[in-house]
């Protein structure tokens, strides 16, 4: 049996892949209460019992110590009157917002320092192998006057170089960081994640997983969620029979304590956002694969017919001095200025209608950025979870979504999904470590 720890575990995407690869997770932790509810509910589904064969602890990693973790593991019922094994692998994905290339990147973001705490726990526990997961921006973030866990000062150094030197100081070798695309490992989503693997001196050097999918056999969005189309007539046209990926999602990939995957008897997390007719009409303007800026460009070049968009016409008329006929005529010719375009589409350029014949873009924490290619609506939590490669039996709990400043402190279902490591990507990495163990 191979034993693992999952820190910064979130709702459990990494844990799902670890379990699918055949590891037993003895200890896991995250700071947020909302993800704890989801994570521990999954424990219950899998037949795992707190204090018996696993231990979850909600905490800031700064408050976690190796001694505390070892104590909780040693007191598990499964090790009663038995020798407690050495931890084979620690998996962890320190929060990535400070390293992300999306939006402002702040080298002084306090979240950037959490990987140092991760290193501290690694030094204290001395596992055989270490996996660190983060965003691509992790590779080229430069830190100034950074003090390592052994007291080394790095005046100006990129994070991977700091990590490599810090690992060496605590007797670990480190593979060169590698950017892995989840779509290359059977995930129906193009999502790049930086993976770093380290190994204790004397242990066999591991490798990164080789891609299992390419441009010819990647799982498309239709392959993944075609059976979740709400309109039966559309579903029968696009998805008359279940695909292999859909069947796997329904039957389950993650084994319970008896080694049997949990199948889903009913779809969970399938609530649809209640869009106003105006919003549905706005969504209908997007062709498959188009972003907001591309829709604007198409309208200006070719014009657009709005005769079947009464709510949008009414909205523009109320906000301008134009009659409904003038609005239809102007848009049909593409003779519109930026103000009229904005009234039609809003300022939001990030919104995109997904393409059905290719993997999804990166699943986000905000549900209104993506439009279904099949219907004029955003994706459900379940559809987003499918695109991340979660089993259908995996239920996300808590608020479905939230907005405004509450996003800074709340982690609703959409955020739990969007923040997760895709289970099949995690599985691919974990399997490589299983080989060298």
In short:
This is DNA (cytosine-5-)-methyltransferase. The chain is an alpha/beta fold and 437 residues long. It has helices at residues 13-20, 33-46, 66-74, 114-125, 159-169, 221-225, 232-238, 244-251, 277-284, 292-302, 310-319, 324-333, 338-345, 381-388, 413-418, 423-436; strands at residues 2-7, 23-30, 55-58, 89-92, 129-134, 142-147, 153-158, 172-174, 178-181, 192-200, 352-353, 370-371.
Tell me the layout of helices and strands:
Elements: E1 2-7, H1 13-20, E2 23-30, H2 33-46, E3 55-58, H3 66-74, E4 89-92, H4 114-125, E5 129-134, E6 142-147, E7 153-158, H5 159-169, E8 172-174, E9 178-181, E10 192-200, H6 221-225, H7 232-238, H8 244-251, H9 277-284, H10 292-302, H11 310-319, H12 324-333, H13 338-345, E11 352-353, E12 370-371, H14 381-388, H15 413-418, H16 423-436
Parallel strand pairs: 1-2, 1-4, 2-3, 4-5, 11-12
Antiparallel strand pairs: 5-10, 6-7, 8-10, 9-10
Tell me what the structure shows.
- The chain has 437 residues and is α/β, with parallel strands linked by helices.
- The protein has helices spanning 13-20, 33-46, 66-74, 114-125, 159-169, 221-225, 232-238, 244-251, 277-284, 292-302, 310-319, 324-333, 338-345, 381-388, 413-418, 423-436; strands spanning 2-7, 23-30, 55-58, 89-92, 129-134, 142-147, 153-158, 172-174, 178-181, 192-200, 352-353, 370-371.
- The strands form three sheets. Strands 1, 2, 3, 4, 5, 8, 9 and 10 form an eight-stranded mixed sheet that branches. A two-stranded antiparallel sheet has the order 6-7.
- Strand 2 (23-30), helix 2 and strand 3 (55-58) form a beta-alpha-beta unit.
- Helix 1 crosses helix 16, helix 3 crosses helix 4 (114-125) and helix 9 packs across helix 11 (310-319).
- The chain is globular and about 80 Å long.
- The mean pLDDT is 94.
């Amino acid at each position: 049996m191979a034993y693992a720890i999952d820190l910064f575990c979130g709702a459990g995407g990494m844990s799902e892949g670890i379990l699918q690869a055949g590891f037993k997770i003895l200890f896991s932790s995250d700071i947020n209460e909302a993800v704890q509810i989801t994570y521990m509910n999954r424990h219950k589904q899998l037949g795992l019992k707190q204090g018996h064969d696993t231990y979850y602890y909600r905490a800031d990693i700064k408050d976690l110590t190796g001694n505390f973790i070892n104590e909780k593991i040693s007191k598990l019922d499964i090790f009663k009157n038995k020798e407690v094994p050495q931890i084979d692998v620690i998996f962890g994905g320190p929060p990535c917002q400070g390293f992300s290339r999306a939006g402002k990147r702040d080298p002084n973001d306090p979240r950037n320092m959490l990987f140092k705490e991760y290193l501290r726990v690694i030094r204290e526990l001395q596992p055989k192998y270490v996996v660190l997961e983060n965003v691509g921006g992790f590779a080229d973030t430069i830190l100034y006057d950074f003090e390592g866990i052994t007291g080394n000062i790095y005046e100006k150094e990129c994070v991977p170089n700091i990590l490599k030197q810090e690992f060496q100081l605590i007797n670990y070798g480190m593979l060169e960081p590698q950017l892995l695309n989840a779509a290359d490992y059977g995930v129906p989503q193009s999502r790049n994640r930086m993976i770093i693997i380290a190994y204790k001196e004397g242990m066999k050097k591991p490798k990164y997983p080789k891609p299992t999918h390419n441009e010819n056999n990647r799982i498309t969005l239709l392959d993944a969620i075609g059976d979740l189309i709400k309109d039966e007539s559309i579903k029968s046209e696009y998805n008359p029979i279940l695909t292999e990926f859909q069947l796997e999602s329904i039957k389950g990939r993650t084994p319970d304590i008896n080694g049997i995957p949990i199948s889903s008897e009913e779809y969970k997390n399938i609530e649809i956002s209640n869009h106003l007719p105006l919003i549905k009409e706005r969504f209908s303007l997007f062709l498959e694969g188009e972003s907001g800026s591309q829709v604007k460009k198409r309208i200006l070049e070719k014009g657009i017919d709005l005769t079947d968009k009464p709510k949008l016409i009414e909205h523009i008329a109320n906000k301008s001095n134009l009659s409904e006929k003038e609005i239809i005529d102007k848009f049909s010719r593409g003779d519109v200025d930026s103000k009229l375009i904005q009234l039609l589409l809003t300022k939001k350029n990030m919104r995109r209608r997904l393409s059905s014949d290719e993997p999804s873009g990166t699943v986000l924490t905000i549900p209104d950025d993506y439009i279904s290619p099949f219907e004029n609506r955003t994706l459900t939590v379940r559809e987003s979870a499918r695109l991340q490669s979660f089993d259908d039996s995996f239920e996300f709990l808590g608020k479905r979504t939230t907005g405004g400043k509450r996003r800074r402190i709340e982690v609703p279902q959409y955020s739990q999904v969007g923040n997760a490591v895709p289970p099949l990507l995690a599985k691919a990495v974990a399997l490589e470590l299983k080989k060298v163990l």
